[in-house]
Amino acid sequence: MEDSRPLILLSNDDGYAAENLRAMHAALAPYGRVIVCAPEVNQSATSHSLSLHRILRLRNVSEDVFAIDGTPADCVYVAMHSSGRVLPRKPDLVVSGMNHGLNLGVDVFYSGTVAAAREAAMRGVPAVAVSADAKADRAAAAAIGARIAMETLAAFRRAPSARAPLFNVNVPPGNAWSVRPTKLGARLYTESVIFREDPRGQEYLWIGGGGVRHDHVHGSDTEAFDEGAVGVTPLTLDLTSPEHRDLCVATCAAVSLGEREG
Question: CB 103: neighbour CB atoms within 10 A?
Fold first, then answer.
């Protein structure tokens, strides 16, 4: 008999064995059938890269748990296009996470967690990326992330839209929170490149500094985090900037005029 429960694809960027993914699996299991397809190893900050120039290997770790030696976007892509090898049908919902650490503000451009959810939303599946502060209660954070994900699916089913929703959820420290809708805030990192020398005299480098701060942006995910609330940010797949439309028109007109005069 066909399973009538929601089919949920669960992925992340910390790897299939991550404790936070296991917590999210446990939180989602009462709501439907959960199938995991996640990276073999940590793939943090891989953004939305796909492995187009090397082979990938898919491993069936256990029942309904698969690992791929690739990126988070690879995992969702393979799961949704593998002709039944991973998923028996198109999933009703994709959840990515729960990430060990936050994805606030500009983090969404670098995050593998967000990219896995984005890959699903691009293909018409409601998707929620969940991230939690290291000091958040793991079980409680996963539970509220699962509730947000399932309410997202329910709302989408009641009022389907042309584009599937893509929500980015961030859980602050603690074990009980209010939940609020947010927009992306200003999360600013200390930027640096550190050059060092290995034992054989060859130079190597590390990029990215360790410091981070939030500029105040009213209604933002960073504000919600600083005030101890769970922030839920709707992300868009359309990166077209209305703010720079006039600038683009002027640039194109100037180039076209130059071409004609030349």
Answer: 28
Strands 7-11, 93-100: pairing is parallel
pLDDT tens per residue across span 65-113: 999 999 999 999 999 999 999 999 999 999 999 999 999 999 999 999 9
Residue among 175, 147, 169 nearest 224 (CA) = 169
Summarised one tens digit per residue, pLDDT across range 129-154 is 999 999 999 999 999 999 999 999 99
pTM as predicted: 0.92
For tokens 């839920």, what's the residue? 232
Tokens of 25: 């699996």
Number of Cβ atoms within 10 Å of the Cβ of 51: 16
Question: For residue 218, with 0-12 CB atoms within 10 Å meaning exposed, 13-18 middle and 19 or more buried, which class applies?
Answer: exposed
Query: Exposed, middle or buried by CB within 10 Å (0-12, 13-18, 19+), for 47?
Result: middle
Residues paired with residue 35 on neighbouring β-strands, in sequence order: 9
Count H helices and E strands in the chain, helices first.
Answer: 7, 13
Q: Where are the beta strands (DSSP E) in the chain?
A: 7-11, 33-39, 58-62, 65-68, 93-100, 127-132, 166-171, 179-181, 186-189, 193-197, 203-207, 212-215, 230-234
Per the listing, tokens 């009022």 go with 159
Q: Give the integer Cα–Cα distance in Å for 147 and 133.
A: 18
SS3 state at 176? coil
